[in-house]
Amino acid sequence: MLHLISLSDWPSQFIVEVLQLAEDVKKNPENYLNSLRRKTLLMIFEKPSLRTRVSFETGMNQMGGHAIFYDTSISPLGAGKESIQDTVQTVSRYVDLIMARLFEHSKVEEMAKFATVPVINALTNFSHPCQILADLMTIQEKKGRLKGLTLAYLGDSNNNVTHSLLFGCAKMEMNIRIGCPPGDQFGPNKKVLSEAVRISKKAGTEVKVTNDPGEAVHGADVVYTDSWMSYHIPPHELNERVRIFTPFQVNAKLMKHAARDAVFMNCLPALRGYEQTAEVIDGPHSVVFDEAENRLHVQKAVMIKLLEKNGLK
C-alpha cells in the first residue's frame, strides 16, 4: 500500500507526477468532477486546523466524494479506549482514504502499517508533506521550474516544515539554505539533514545550514519562514523565543539580499511583526495566499494518485 507519510518515502518522479496532475486539476477542474465519486475520506484530527480541514473537505466535495471529520478529543481513540491498530483496521472497511493530523509522527506511521487503504499525513511534529507539495507547486507556477532554484528558510528549523522542505527541495534538485540560531534545539533533525545532503549530492545541488540570515537569503529565489511559536511551544516561552529569533525575521532589509524577483512564502498561520513584517507578507513578493490555495489542488492530486497507484480507483 502506497501512502503519503513523508516525502522521503516518495520517488522524485512520483512527486513530479503529482505536481503535474495538480496543475491540471487547477486549470481544468471540470475534468475531475467525478474523479472521487462515491469515495469517502476519513479525516482524523488531533490538532486544530483551518487550511487542512477546509481544503481536504472541499476537495472531496468538488470531485464527487465525501469527507468525514473525526475529532479524537471526543473519540474512543483519543480517550485511549481503542488502539490505533484496531481503529484503522476497522475504518479501512468503511472508507477509501484516511487523512490524519496528529502530534506524534509515530502514530501516523502506525496507521499506515495497519491500514488497508491509503493514509495521508496531514501534519505531524516531524513532517508536513502536503504543505510542501503545495509549496513546490506554487514555486513552479511562479518560476516556471524547480530544478536549480534556491530556497532560503529562516527561523525555527527544528520542525515539520523544515524537514519536509529539506526532502522536497533535495528531491526536486533545488538548493536549500537554512538560516537559524545556533543550537540543536533550533536546527533541523540531523538524520533528515544527512539524508537531504546525500540526495542533493547526487543532483549536484546544495544543502546548507547557517547562523547568518543574510548568507542564507543571498541571491535566493524563494524566501520562506514559519511560526516561531508552533503548537507544541508553551506560551510562556514567547518572549525568549522572540529574542532568539528576531535576527531571523524576514523584513524588507533582509529581502534585499534575495534575488530581485524572489517570492516570499509562509505556510500560515502568520503573525505580522514576528517571523515576518507586514510589509513583506502583504507586499509584492508575497505568494502566501496562492500557496494556501494550492493545498486544495495538490491534495486533490494526492488523493487521485494514491487511489490509482493502489488499484483502488
Task: Sketch the major β-sheet.
Answer: 5 strands, parallel
Number of domains: 2
Helix content: 40-55%
Name the average pLDDT.
96
Distance between the termini: 13 Å
CATH class of the largest domain: Alpha Beta
Total count of helical runs of at least 4 residues? 12
Poorly predicted runs of 5 or more residues:
none
**Which class best fits the helix and strand makeup?**
alpha/beta
Q: CATH superfamily assignment of the largest domain?
A: Aspartate/ornithine carbamoyltransferase
Q: Largest beta sheet: what is the strand line-up?
A: 7-6-5-8-9
Q: Per the principal axes of the C-alpha atoms, what is the gross shape?
A: globular
Description:
Helices cover 42% and strands 13% of the residues. With 313 residues, it is an alpha/beta fold. The chain folds into two domains: 7-127 and 293-309, Aspartate/ornithine carbamoyltransferase (Rossmann fold), CATH 3.40.50; 131-289, Aspartate/ornithine carbamoyltransferase (Rossmann fold), CATH 3.40.50. Helix 7 (190-203) links the parallel strand 6 (175-179) and strand 7.
Q: What's the helix and strand layout?
A:
Blueprint: H1 12-27, E1 40-45, H2 51-62, E2 66-71, H3 84-91, E3 97-101, H4 105-114, E4 119-121, H5 129-143, E5 150-154, H6 160-171, E6 175-179, H7 190-203, E7 207-210, H8 213-217, E8 222-225, H9 238-245, H10 252-255, E9 263-266, H11 278-281, H12 288-309
Helix pairs in contact: 1-5, 1-12, 2-12, 3-4, 5-6, 5-12, 6-7
